Amino acid sequence: MHVCGLILTFVLVQSSDRLQFFFIKNLDIRISDTTKVDVLRKCYEVTCSLREYVELHLQEFSASEALESFMNSSMVTCNADTNMRLDGAFTTNKASTMDELLEFVITRAAAKGEMRDNVLSLGYRRSQIRPAVMGSQTSGYENNMVAHVQSPVFEELHGMIGSDLMVHLLKDLSLFVKTGSCYLQVAGCPVNEVGLKQDTATKADGQNG
């Protein structure tokens, strides 16, 4: 099966009114799913499947066949300075809608001046974000990762794990979902930015050493 040669690389194409993420799918390279996960593990210090992330927090849960497949094929990642497990008490209550959760994640990124620190906030103009429902958000360019996270499988996941864990997953961690033969990053610091930050930290350590 022909798959993406650079399974974590996306091409950011900016036109007059759209911000699109495209995977390079026409590379004549055969790469196994195991190799793709190995690449993720080289980029991040902590990796697990979405199912393992859920099991880390919940002893019991019930999911549809579609959600089970989604959890088994999706990957959650972070580095050592971030805790994969949500600190403190949390509930599985669905306290907010997905639109409201996305509003919160994007607004927090704007408040910190770190719009590029989460793929979900790319394309949103800091000065135009208003604390209301997602429909009032003004994006300079259409971010199709937001639409992806509003899909039915994410709605079911939200209903199962609750708003506390969903915010943690989308705001503090990086999430990669399997789409065809590729992994698509739908939340977290863009993987190319992770590499840049690691290079900067390494250079700083070398200068201080």
UniProtKB/TrEMBL annotation:
Keywords associated with the record: Chromosome, Magnesium, Metal-binding, Nucleotidyltransferase, Nucleus, RNA-directed DNA polymerase, Telomere, Transferase
Localization in the cell: Nucleus; Chromosome, Telomere
The protein's Enzyme Commission number: 2.7.7.49
Entry keyword annotation includes Metal-binding: yes
GO BP annotation list: telomere maintenance via telomerase
Role noted for this protein: Telomerase is a ribonucleoprotein enzyme essential for the replication of chromosome termini in most eukaryotes. It elongates telomeres. It is a reverse transcriptase that adds simple sequence repeats to chromosome ends by copying a template sequence within the RNA component of the enzyme.
Catalysis performed (reactions): DNA(n) + a 2'-deoxyribonucleoside 5'-triphosphate = DNA(n+1) + diphosphate
Protein name: Telomerase reverse transcriptase
Predominant location: nucleus
Superkingdom as given in the UniProt entry: Eukaryota
GO CC aspect terms: chromosome, telomeric region; telomerase catalytic core complex
InterPro entries, sorted: Telomerase_RT, TERT_TEN
Name of a matching Pfam family: TEN_TERT
Occurrences of domain Telomerase reverse transcriptase TEN (ranges): 53-194
Family: Belongs to the reverse transcriptase family. Telomerase subfamily.
